[in-house]
Design goal:
Strand content: 5-15%
Number of strands: 7
Radius of gyration: 31 Å
Strand order of the largest sheet: 4-5-3-7-6
Structural class: alpha+beta
Largest sheet: 5 strands, antiparallel
Number of helices: 26
Helix content: 55-70%
């Protein structure tokens, strides 16, 4: 694909100065008022702003009104200072996350791993005492993180890999809990109920950092779906198991009832999924009846947090409710969204996931005390060994059920089982009166740090060594020739500019110009040869160019609207057309390229198919495989004014039946081909033949000339 523009960084010395300035700014932001040293404390467990009421004097006591008012004012000012300090810290951390993202992209390391490292460095230098309430992570940061991942997970991809995902997410979590607890109890002497608690809280995987890396490297899509799907479902499973074994640890083994525990597990997990499915369906229906991207985006936010809260109030799994709600809303909701709304919602949740990830992994680094970890290194080594061994048995053993998973993929699934936000939140939520809770927390923090740093940094070399990066010889040759052609053209333009400035004589330029032009043309021809011999490369470059042109059109429309050249109504209409083109994923470039280069007969018939919104995607996908030319026009049906799409399809001789068959298979109901002609059609136009499909109405018209532009 064409080279992408990458942001440039200042030289190494400049980056050091920039880091020093940033550190100084953060130290200043973290310094509480009235202190001279660089020690700060943020308590996320207490409210940042409180409302105080008048104190009621005790019997025999009197409290002057002035004293009560002064005390209330002092308390309010103290709360206000805490709030401002918290705001300064959040702004500083956001700015830090931006810089870490730039450097991580430049160095090609996982972004979240860089955040953890920066958090650890800050705890050593600034000595922040950050106490993080578990509800801050579970109720505030985890829902957008999980909803964003579920929202972007395609139903078809999930269905194709449902068996291995569920096997790893349910039996895999239970197996990991049992194996880890047994090894830790045997090796460290930890009580078995407490070891079960530790095994449950480290059984949830969090591969967000490696998944982001995989997308940039071009790892097979199915492998990414397996990692993401397992993580989505095992988060909820791990929390349910954790609650059960925590109750066991608090009440003792004598009160344990296996049958009741299994029923409770099914109730909590199944109830969470039901809550998410119902709320996701309700919100998706509401979205289909609204045409306002701000309201629709807000509804998705209400759904993400509302599903979690409703499920928790009902005593079922909030995390699984968010997973189900995100899957429903991400696959059904967009059918009722306008193209503009889809773009806004996708971008919003991508940004929300970025924010949640940034805060979670920075908090992991800020919360972990390296000195405490060092003092308990034998316990942590046992914990890490137990987690790695249990993960190996779970992945290599349970994956035998789905034998079509290649052995190289199993290596990646094993090493990609990082621990993160859920493990941290569950460790922090341990009750203070639980004997041995501190020991469990230390082991959990050690496992999280090891998996994020050791496994996170080594994942890219492992993937390359296993040969899972999908960059074949044709792609590499294209990049090589394209880079040479671009460099040659830039060199020619530079010398031409110097000649125009009078810095190169006419004589020298007349000698150099033909040579440079010939060299540039030969390199351009070499690029053309490698592209035309590989339709996928050509399709990718055409798609990139097409989307760039659409983005330029969108910017031009925005500029015209801002300058008052066009009205808001015209702007909304034209912007919606551009957004519709941007959201089209079924361009069928390889088929269209094949059409352009191979001889075909003339197009002599035009088919107009009015397809309902839910059938557009599958209909276009089926038609492009036939190599027909398709033009999509947004339209509205007369019945209830429901949005649909009119497909203009150019047909050659003998293609009509194949197209009708493709539409009948891709639309919701079977098709009955009706041969009768329409009545009272204008005499000056050819009479169309109607074809009725379950989700489409088709008219075929004889034409003399067809042009696609």
């Amino acid at each position: 694909m064409p080279p992408k523009h990458r942001p440039t960084l200042p030289p190494r010395s400049g980056r050091i100065v920039l880091a020093a300035v940033l550190a100084l700014a953060l130290l200043t932001a973290c310094r509480p008022a009235g202190t001279s040293d660089l020690r700060g404390q943020i308590d996320f467990e207490s409210p940042a702003l409180s409302i105080s009421a008048e104190e009621t004097p005790l019997p025999g006591e009197t409290l002057p009104t002035e004293q009560a008012e002064a005390a209330a004012e002092a308390e309010f000012e103290e709360s206000n200072e805490q709030f401002l300090l918290l705001e300064e810290l959040i702004i500083g951390l956001l700015f830090l996350a931006v810089l870490v993202g730039i450097v991580a992209h430049r160095l090609r390391v996982p972004y979240t791993v860089g955040l953890v490292l920066i958090g650890l460095v800050l705890t050593l230098s600034v000595q922040l005492n950050v106490r993080v309430a578990p509800n801050l992570i579970l109720a505030l940061l985890v829902p957008p993180l999980i909803f964003e991942a579920a929202f972007h997970l395609n139903f078809n991809h999930l269905r194709e890999n449902l068996v291995p995902i569920l096997v790893l997410a349910v039996p895999g979590v239970i197996l990991t809990t049992l194996l880890v607890s047994g090894i830790v109890a045997w090796g460290t002497g930890l009580a078995l109920p407490l070891a079960l608690v530790f095994g449950a809280l480290v059984s949830a995987t969090d591969p967000v950092s490696v998944v982001a890396l995989f997308r940039t490297m071009g790892v097979p899509r199915r492998l990414i779906v397996l990692l993401e799907g397992e993580s989505l479902f095992n988060d909820g499973t791990a929390i349910v198991v954790y609650d059960l074994v925590l109750a066991l640890a608090l009440s003792g083994l004598a009160s344990f009832n296996l049958a009741y525990s299994l029923l409770d597990f099914a109730r909590v997990a199944g109830g969470g999924l039901v809550v998410g499915l119902v709320l996701g369906g309700v919100v998706s229906q509401m979205i289909s009846r609204i045409d306002d991207y701000l309201i629709e985006t807000t509804l998705t936010s209400v759904l993400a947090y509302g599903a979690y809260l409703v499920a928790e109030v009902l005593g079922v799994s909030g995390v699984l409710a968010v997973v189900a709600a995100g899957l429903i809303n991400g696959n059904i909701g967009p059918r009722g969204m306008s193209p503009t709304t889809r773009i806004v919602v996708y971008n919003f949740w991508e940004y929300a996931g970025f924010l949640a990830n940034s805060f979670i992994f920075l908090l992991i680094g800020l919360r972990i005390d390296l000195a405490v970890l060092y003092g308990n290194w034998p316990l942590i080594l046992w914990a890490i060994g137990a987690v790695l061994l249990a993960r190996a048995i779970g992945v290599y053993g349970l994956s035998q059920i789905e034998r079509d998973i290649p052995i190289k993929w199993r290596h990646v699934l094993y090493w990609g089982g990082l621990r993160g936000a859920i493990s941290l939140a569950l460790a922090l939520s341990l009750p203070g009166d639980l004997e041995g809770a501190h020991q469990v927390q230390v082991m959990a923090f050690g496992v999280v740090i090891f998996t994020l740093l050791a496994q996170g940094f080594s994942m890219a070399p492992l993937v390359r060594r296993l040969g899972l990066v999908e960059r074949g010889p044709a792609q590499q040759e294209y990049e090589r020739r394209h880079a040479r052609a671009v460099a040659s053209r830039v060199a020619y333009e530079h010398l031409e500019r110097r000649h125009r400035q009078g810095l190169i004589s006419d004589h020298s330029w007349s000698t150099l110009a033909p040579l440079l032009q010939g060299h540039t043309r030969s390199l351009a021809a070499a690029v053309k040869d490698v592209i035309t011999s590989n339709l996928d490369l050509e399709a990718e470059e055409l798609d990139t160019a097409r989307r760039e042109s659409l983005r330029a059109q969108r910017s031009a429309l925005t500029r015209l609207f801002r300058d008052g050249v066009i009205s808001e109504e015209i702007y909304a209409q034209l912007a919606s057309e551009v957004d519709a083109a941007l959201t089209e994923s079924q361009l069928g470039w390889p088929e269209l390229i094949g059409q352009a280069v191979s001889p075909h007969g003339p197009v002599n018939r035009l088919m107009a198919a009015i397809v309902q919104q839910q059938d557009v995607e599958s209909a276009i996908s089926s038609l492009t495989k036939l190599g027909v030319v398709i033009t999509c026009l947004p339209s509205t049906g007369a019945y209830l004014s429901k949005r649909n799409t009119t497909l203009l399809i150019g047909l050659m001789q003998g293609q009509e039946e194949a197209v009708v068959r493709a539409l009948s298979n891709s639309c919701r109901q079977r098709v009955e081909y009706l041969a009768q002609l329409l009545v009272e059609y204008p005499s000056f136009m050819p009479e169309p033949v109607p074809v009725t499909v379950g989700g489409a109405t088709i008219f075929v018209i004889e034409i003399e000339r067809f042009e696609a532009f």
